[in-house]
Fold each of these.
Amino acid sequence: MKKFIDFVRSVFKTEEFIPLHEPRFWGNEKKYVADCIDSTFVSSVGKYVDKIEQMVAEYTGAKYAVATVNGSAALHIALLLAGVEYDDEVITQPLTFIATANAINYCNAKPVFVDVDIDTMGLSPTKLKDFLEEFVEIKDDGFSYNKKTGKRLKACVPMHTFGHPVKIDEIIELCNKYNIAVVEDAAESPGSKYKNKHTGIFGKLGILSFNGNKTITTGGGGMIITDDENLAKLAKHITTTGKKPHKWEYVHDIKAYNYRMPNLNAALGCAQIEQLDDFILDKRKLFEIYNQFFKNSDIQLFKEPEHAFSNYWLQAVILENRNERDKFLEFTNSKGVMTRPIWQLLNKSEMYKNAHCTDLTNSQWLEDRVVNIPSSVIKDL
Ligand SMILES: *Cc1c(COP(=O)(O)O)cnc(C)c1O
């Protein structure tokens, strides 16, 4: 473990504290933000908000992109647009950041936790199939219902953990059979592709996050992406207070939100997207460097799954067991090298402890072993 500390310090070329992930502002950030201030358009109207939407649509290959204040808000609206209503159920994985389940909760719906695969750390199509076959019936209204709880299953939210794509095509095929809408939580996977297609554009809707700790940042921000023109229009309408277009009248026609990304944040983000491909190249190089180091150790480095091109947002190692994991966390953090365990399974949190869960063997296995290690982009690696 001492060797690991020395190694990380040599890679990051510092004797100071090494954080898990810091943003890099090496491009046009200052220029665009200053331009934004000079224009006086610092809030939710302005050219950079439109520009970042265009850039994200172009980059991901989505037909439409709608900018939001953060990824959580994007997921909230995406679920509403997928038709999630009060008392519905939404399938997701227990091994994800709390925001995934919170967005379901904001819709007054309930999460159902289905296990993940070890090789992707994301929703398992095999476990999903088992769940659907055992518990779900399609009723005369065309919708799927959970036989155990009696509730309607309206949507499914797979999440691309640390930027590693899930087996999204298999998940979509299953959900189509059961008339369950797929909303991809691609918060962690801008730049990641599955079978050469960007994550987030497989489902009915997808969302991205540009929080400060993500691969690229707008400070705080998110994006809804979709190929459906009507959903995109509605997304824009609902995230901008539902105001009907008029020269001066304030007429609002729907329960709506003030969720639009401010221009200042969008300006920062435009400069970040320009560098996204370079960041990902560096992150993939960092993986190779860590991989050399861990080759001859009992610690396993997580590698991108089959058919995937990962952005490697956060590098992850798999320790032997929970005890080894705790020792590793204790030692590295005491030496000023920041490491963090993967999330506690969401079904263990107070809000979601009564949720319907499938067998969660793989999720529990990963919770006991996975730790993130310093993953920031390094200049001239
Ligand atoms: C970061 C994240 C979000 C939420 O994004 P914010 O912009 O922080 O609201 C949602 N889901 C996952 C899996 C995330 O990692």
Note: Residues 136 and 146 are 5 Å apart (CA to CA).
Amino acid sequence: MEQPKLVFTQISEFLEFLGPDFATLIANDPDLRGLDHAPSFPFCCSRHYAERVRNASKPKALLREILPTKAEYEDVPGFVDDPVGDLPAGKNECVIQKYDQRALVMTTATCGVRCRFCFRRNYPFQNIPDVDVQVRNWLDTHSDIWEIILSGGDPLTLSPSKFESLIEAIGDHSSVTTLRIHTRLPVMRPDLVQQHMDLLKELPARFDCVLVSHVDHPDELDEESQIIFGQLKFAGWTLLNQSVLLKGVNEDADTMTKLCRKLFQQGVLPYYIHQLDHAKGVAHFEISDDQAKALVAEIRTKLPGYLVPRLVREIAGEKSKTPV
Ligand SMILES: *Cc1c(COP(=O)(O)O)cnc(C)c1O
Ligand code: SF4
């Protein structure tokens, strides 16, 4: 028997999975109907996320995050290939250091999805076969680094053996006390998170462990993300979330308030709301700073202080994220 597909790479098969009602919804929506079936940043969406779309209270928001449209070809001044200055901050093929005593590793080019607003959508990504060796060699000569952030791509798309050898390469440097993982897989490919779960549960004995999930809309969270976050929290991980502020997805106070509350119910604290990074092809997601500040001011009146994320922007060359 044919295995059900876990990932859709063709829009047509994704739409077929969703069913005819969604084709009608998309055809009637001015923001979605300019579908681009052969985008330069290819379509990719997990079956898991497609199921979240099916069950969503507002499927349009979730669809907008992943469906390529012709709007991506608008050439808008200021929207560029490397909006956050990753390239000049590169230390070797995979280590990026922008901030004092902390470094980020581009572990892989692979993700569980391709978000249309991705800040690294035009990044000259390659899968690097020996990330573990490169990280090990770099840390050998950088004993001031105390936090390593695994990013990408999505670090949890690595095979368990590659992921483990990367952890070993880091763990052999006692200077590194904090291990942080940036991932969207708890809401995209919970099955792939689960294949690392035994190792993840052991890590708090060796590092201070922080997982920063990327969730943009409350409808992305479900029972499976709840299980993952519950297991990690119980194992001793600190759980934080970052969202990107996106027009047509999460720019209203009601959605953002729901997201923050639902994250907390699953054991996760809202950490950042990012103002959109100006990658080429994402301008149609932009929210003005004034609107963003008004949004945060409004959710502040609806939530306890510990559930209000910090509104920030990444400016190339700065020594930290910049509060808006
Ligand atoms: C965003 C980022 C970090 C993490 O910044 P925090 O403010 O600590 O979340 C670290 N390194 C790089 C290169 C980054 O882009
Ligand atoms: S999960 Fe992050 S890196 Fe991957 S496509 Fe989405 S925004 Fe880009």
Note: The chain has twelve helices and eleven strands.
